[in-house]
Amino acid sequence: MANEVTEKLAATVRTSFGKGAARKIRANNQIPAVLYGHGTDPQHLTLPGHETMLLLRKSNALLNLDIEGADELALVKDVQRDPVRQIIEHVDLLLVKRGERVDVEVPVHVVGEPFPGTIVVQDTMTIFVSAEATHIPENIEVSVEGLEAGSSIAATDVALPKGTKLVDEETEVIILSVQEPRAEVEEDDAEGEEAAEAPEAEASAE
User: Fold this and answer.
1) What is the DSSP letter of 21?
2) Are strands 40-48 and 101-111 parallel, antiparallel or unpaired?
3) pTM to 2 decimals?
4) Domain ranges, residue 62
5) Where does residue 136 rank: exposed (0-12), middle (13-18), buried (19+ CB within 10 A)?
6) Is the Cβ–Cβ distance between 155 and 166 less than 8 Å?
7) Do residues 114 and 147 make contact, with C-beta atoms less than 8 angstroms apart?
8) How far apart are CA 80 and CA 136, in angstroms?
9) Residue ranges of the Large ribosomal subunit protein bL25 beta domain (predicted)?
10) 143 and 107 in one domain?
11) I want to staple 43 with a disulfide (CB 3.0 to 4.6 A). Which of 35, 52, 78, 122 is the partner?
């Protein structure tokens, strides 16, 4: 399922800057943001707090902005949060056009169960892909159904949604591997070492 364009989100142009101005904006349940891209000068904006927070629950949210009467599409590129309170402090937005392709990180969603007695070790939580701005997948499903220990899945093995492609640097990335639980492996190794030491002990006793 692809991220859908949201209903219009009213934004206002911001003319005051600095930490003090940003604190006042957040105190009014609003969020400071900047919109950039397509060679235009960055626009400093103020977004409605509650509506924006709901939309930012999804990765790569695509916002349909009404900037004082001007309609713009914007892709959320970065969200800065307070590390303790997790309050949204600032949002970076990328100006996009319908049909335009963008490079984004999409979450990996592992489905299925591997062979009994094995575990899945996920090496990367996202895949870097190129997709149309209005058709960015919410996640990429990777099935591990029935995979045995020693199996692995690379980014090139993943079935991507139509119109979505891997970016070049992702072609060598390993998404996950299927392994035996480490405790069982260590026990098997220990038993092997004991068996190897036993004949030596008998020989020395003679």
Assistant:
1) H
2) unpaired
3) 0.77
4) 8-96
5) buried
6) yes
7) yes
8) 22
9) 102-182
10) yes
11) 35
